[in-house]
Amino acid sequence: MHFGRASAVWVCLTIGASPAYGSCLAVNTTRLFAAQTGEAYLRADLAGAPTGRSMARLYLFSVTGEHLVWTATLANVPQTIWIDPIGRWVVTLGNHCNSPSDQEHALTVYDERGRLIADWTLNELVPDLHKHVSVFEVHTPWTSEAPLRFEAPFNELRVIFPWGESKVVSRKPAK
Question: Is 13 a domain residue?
Fold first, then answer.
């Protein structure tokens, strides 16, 4: 009996393939997230962090090189992160590999010193999410169906949802 190359590929794919929603790949021990401008990045490390959390370091680039701004333990292992270009705000979104129905720390906000100043569960953040997004599979971050925008004028951060609602986080100026 002769099996061609195409048959071997079909057998491998049939036996070895699994649906994307079937399981989550293991979390890397280090994850890097960059600001859209490229002027800042956050390094999240799982090694040595409490279970379900990550150690993070925020770095900014300047003409003299890379500078460590702060180090903190994050409330979660973020799915994705938004970083203000000048490091005033860091927002973590979702929990890497968690089910959307079990979304503690769905959105957390850290200030320019790495202090946690806002922490919402998915239900607190968007109690009627099902009205705005379609049903999504396990391990799909809720933000893929509801991409957020961020504005950071002066001493507040606005989290803007695609359907027009927003959340505002304020802080007093650092002394």
Answer: no
Number of H helices, E strands in the chain: 3, 11
Full DSSP string of 6-47: HHHHHHHHHHH---TTT--PPPPSEEEEE-TTSSEEEEEE-T
The answer to whether position 12 is within a domain reads: no
| pLDDT tens per residue, range 116-159 | 999 998 888 877 766 766 654 444 556 666 678 999 988 899 99
* Alpha carbon distance 80, 38 (integer Å): 16
Q: Which token pair is 67?
A: 């500078």
User: Has residue 1 been placed in a domain?
Assistant: no
Contact 37, 87 (CB under 8 A): no
Model pTM greater than 0.90?
A: no
Which domain does 123 fall in, by range? Answer: 25-170
Q: What percent of the chain has pLDDT over 90?
A: 31
Whether residue 4 is contained in a domain is answered as no
Number of domains, the chain: 1
9, amino acid identity: V
